[in-house]
């Protein structure tokens, strides 16, 4: 089945069999139509020929695929030289500041917000550590500004924050949940 058969008009055989000596040199709408029809027939024949040929596709695996890199040189040459390709080594994962705490998400010099997952407020302390006195409480969904951190103490990552004119230290979370999250502008 020709791919272009749907493009041929009903009167195509009549137009194709007209006795025009050289339609490529003729002008006019009728001759352009004849040239178009002959071109479509040629495309149909070519597509039928290509569709009938069996295609031998070899199996390609990563091991059998050669890796070729082009090298620039000052001398003109038509030859390509094969250079082995070395896969880059990925950098190691960042080491957590506090191994007994979740990975830090807060960003210094950005805003943060108390998560509503736990209805209790977050303690703001004078210094990092659960043994330090509580200065204030951050209510749920309170937005604060991160000034410094993280500092690891008592299995928590601590950040110094500013909220409502007061500054202090908060824990970002524990291994079961985060207490706060980044609250980026937008």
Describe the protein in words:
By secondary structure, the chain is α+β, with helices and mostly antiparallel strands. Among the domains are: 5-52, no CATH class; 111-182, SH3 Domains (SH3 type barrels, Roll), CATH 2.30.30.40. The chain contains two helices and seven strands. The protein has helices spanning 12-16, 29-52, and strands at residues 111-114, 122-125, 134-138, 143-153, 156-163, 166-171, 180-182. The chain has a five-stranded antiparallel beta sheet with strand order 6-5-4-1-7, with no helix packed on it. The longest helix has 24 residues, at 29-52. The protein starts with 11 loop residues before the first helix and ends with a strand. The mean pLDDT is 77.
CATH hierarchy, class of the domain at 111-182: Mainly Beta
CATH topology value of the domain at 111-182: SH3 type barrels
Provide mean pLDDT, rounded.
77
Would you report the number of β strands? Answer: 7
Look at the structure and name the CATH superfamily of the domain at 111-182. SH3 Domains
The gyration radius over C-alpha positions equals: 37 Å
SS element count, helices: 2
Widest sheet, order of strands: 6-5-4-1-7
Distance between the termini: 57 Å
> Percent helix among the residues?
10-25%
Oligomer: single chain
The major beta sheet can be summarized as:
5 strands, antiparallel
């Amino acid at each position: 089945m020709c791919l272009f058969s749907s493009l041929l008009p009903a009167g195509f055989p009549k137009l194709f069999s007209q006795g025009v000596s050289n339609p490529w040199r003729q002008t006019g709408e009728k001759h352009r139509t004849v040239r178009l029809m002959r071109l479509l027939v040629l495309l149909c024949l070519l597509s039928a020929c290509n569709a009938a040929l069996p295609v031998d596709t070899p199996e390609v695996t990563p091991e059998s695929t050669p890796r070729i890199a082009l090298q620039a040189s000052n001398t003109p040459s038509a030859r390509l030289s094969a250079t082995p390709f070395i896969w880059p080594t990925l950098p190691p994962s960042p080491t957590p500041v506090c191994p007994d705490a979740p990975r830090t998400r807060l960003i210094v010099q950005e805003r943060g917000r108390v998560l509503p997952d736990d209805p209790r407020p977050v303690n703001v302390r004078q210094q990092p550590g659960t043994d330090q006195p509580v200065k204030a409480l951050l209510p749920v969904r309170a937005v604060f500004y991160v000034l410094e951190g993280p500092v690891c103490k008592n299995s928590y990552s601590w950040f110094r924050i500013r909220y409502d004119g007061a500054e202090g230290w908060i824990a970002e979370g524990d291994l079961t949940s985060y207490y706060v999250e980044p609250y980026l502008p937008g």
